[in-house]
Amino acid sequence: MLETVELRKVFKGKTAVDEVSLYLDQGESVGLLGPNGAGKSTTISMISSLLRPTGGDVRLNGKSVVKHPQDIRRVLGVVPQEIALYEELSAYENLKFFGRIYKLRGSGLELKIQEVLEMVGLRERQKELIRTFSGGMKRRINIAAALLHDPQIVIMDEPTVGIDPQSRNHILDTVRLLNREKGTTVLYTSHYMEEVEQLCSRVYIMDHGRIIASGTQEELRRILSGEDTLLIELNEPSPELARELQALKPVRMAEETEKGLKLIVMKQSGILSEVVKEAERQHVQIVNIHVHTPSLEDVFLHLTGRKLRD
Ligand SMILES: Nc1ncnc2c1ncn2[C@@H]1O[C@H](COP(=O)(O)OP(=O)(O)OP(=O)(O)O)[C@@H](O)[C@H]1O
């Protein structure tokens, strides 16, 4: 339905997006994951024809979006990171304004406004001024505005960054409703792995402007099929222990966590006894050890050597 073909963007000699090829089939919910500065927003701006690519193409049903930008604007709803609302107007008035831009009028527009307000859970608050809303509520109205023209494809750029948990839950519910009940195709960018795990069937992982891995969640996890993740709870933090363990051969990755350490290790490497011995040597007490199969977050750490939220 929608694809990018070797998409590139260079800003003053600096490559922000480098040969990105991705596709969305109709009705899919796809995640685009990457740390800050990975190139997600730049990719989205080119897909939505707000930014001209330096190279490559975006195609909607096989037709170039770069050459025919009006085609994509009709079928696409984009929720950008920045809030773009009139503070001195009410939620309802804002939606009326945006609806008119989409050339909606009269009772059709009224119905649509009430429907999108219901979807984001703010129907009861529609008469209140935007300036009295929390950041999360503003973000939800921004989402509502992007849904007024019944888009076939919705792209959301990190919609849950920095907002309250209640609004976050509403936004996740809205994405589920759109995709699973209305069949809307969704591209969801985030650096919260757990959101993508909940919402998306397929994932692209982006870093330094490039797609470094892609596939279903299961396929991505298989990258680490020969490995286990150990969560080690310690009585006190120990950067020394993390350093020493990182140097051991079966340890792919060691990082400190809130409660102790996380290790990605080769399966059946007998590493546990080494960990216990090393902890004793460092006079650190192990409170608990959990072994589990790697998460998408672990896959990311393995591929980039960095945490998503670095
Ligand atoms: N208009 C611009 N001019 C110059 N450089 C830019 C411009 N827009 C983005 N960049 C650079 O391109 C790179 C990718 O930025 P982009 O905003 O696409 O990343 P991102 O993955 O969306 O991260 P974030 O979550 O921080 O928005 C960054 O190094 C950024 O500084």
Helical coverage, percent range:
25-40%
Number of domain units = 2
User: Ends: how far apart?
Assistant: 33 Å
Which CATH top level class of the largest domain fits? Alpha Beta
The hetero compounds bound to this protein are: adenosine-5'-triphosphate
Order of helices and strands: EEEHEEHEHHHEHEHEEHEHEEHEH
The CATH topology label of the largest domain is Rossmann fold
- Name the CATH architecture of the largest domain: 3-Layer(aba) Sandwich
Describe this structure in words.
The chain has 310 residues and is α/β, with parallel strands linked by helices. It folds into two domains: 2-221, Rossmann fold (3-Layer(aba) Sandwich); 225-293, MTH889-like domain (Alpha-Beta Plaits, 2-Layer Sandwich). It has eleven helices and 14 strands. It has helices at 40-47, 69-75, 91-101, 106-119, 135-147, 165-181, 193-199, 217-222, 239-246, 271-281, 296-304; strands at 2-11, 14-24, 29-33, 55-60, 63-64, 76-79, 153-157, 185-190, 202-207, 210-216, 227-234, 251-256, 260-266, 286-292. The chain has a six-stranded mixed beta sheet, with helices on both faces. Strands 2-1-4-5 form a four-stranded antiparallel beta sheet, covered by helices on one side. Strands 12-13-11-14 form a four-stranded antiparallel beta sheet, with helices on both faces. β7, α6 and β8 form a beta-alpha-beta unit. α4 (106-119) crosses α5. The longest helix has 17 residues, at 165-181. The chain is globular and about 75 Å long. The mean pLDDT is 88. The site of adenosine-5'-triphosphate has 11 residues, from α1. This is ABC transporter ATP-binding protein. It comes from Paenibacillus sepulcri. It holds the Pfam family DrrA1-3_C. InterPro entries: AAA+_ATPase, ABC_transporter-like_ATP-bd, ABC_transporter-like_CS, DrrA1/2-like_C, P-loop_NTPase. Residues 2-233 form the ABC transporter domain.
